[in-house]
Amino acid sequence: MSRLADVFARCKAENRAALVGYLTAGDPDVVTSESLLLALSEHVDILEIGMPFSDPMADGPIIQAASERALASGTRIADVFRLTAKVREEHPNLGIVLMGYANIPFVMGFEHFAEQAVAAGADAVLLVDIPPEEGFICDAIFKQHGLDRILLLSPTSSEERIQLACEHASGFIYYVSLNGITGAEMGEMGAVQQQVQAIRKHTALPICVGFGVKTAEQVKQVGAFADGVVVGSHFVGAIPVGLVKKEDVAMILQQSAKSMRDALKK
Length: 266
Known about the structure:
This protein is α/β, with parallel strands linked by helices. The chain has twelve helices and nine strands. It has one domain: Aldolase class I (TIM Barrel, Alpha-Beta Barrel), CATH 3.20.20.70.
């Protein structure tokens, strides 16, 4: 079994969904980012580590600003791998997903990128702008290196596209709860549940729901029918607010993640 499969199995044994948390690597700078990633890792089951990019087209203003802060502070892909390795060292059983855009591995070369990702301890990669139809450029390489490739589905995904994504994905399916960018208000809960049930007809992979999940109550509601709940903008948004107020951002992230994980316990 892969590490991600182990994570979902443990959560299932605890009769709850997995909590998936996202932070952008290098935000607001590499040194601070390390402490924040480690803090969030204490209370999530899977950590999505964002690879900062200059044109994060799927992201809303909160995560866009995080990429801008990270890049402005000098964060490079080598820093992302180093931060990933530090998290893996401290949390050997944590699921780790590198999330970002195709330009980074394309410029590095997918083979070299995969080697570095595995060496750093990543379990999977989520590249927002490589749909299953174009997976031939990276699928075989990632599989060869033991990296799962997470694929996205949305409310507008056709039956044919759902089937295609399910055939090519591994690790889990990421269902985007709304037609829009990260940080927007999530879709109507009943409709989200209905779509998750429709996707289940095509795959035995775990299904995680994200985009727009901001509160412990929403986490609880989504966790009642999904295998995992993804929280991103809520955690990322705490960083600039905490820094301005000179608060302990690491503690804020831990407390917030703990309340959400507690909400998943039935």
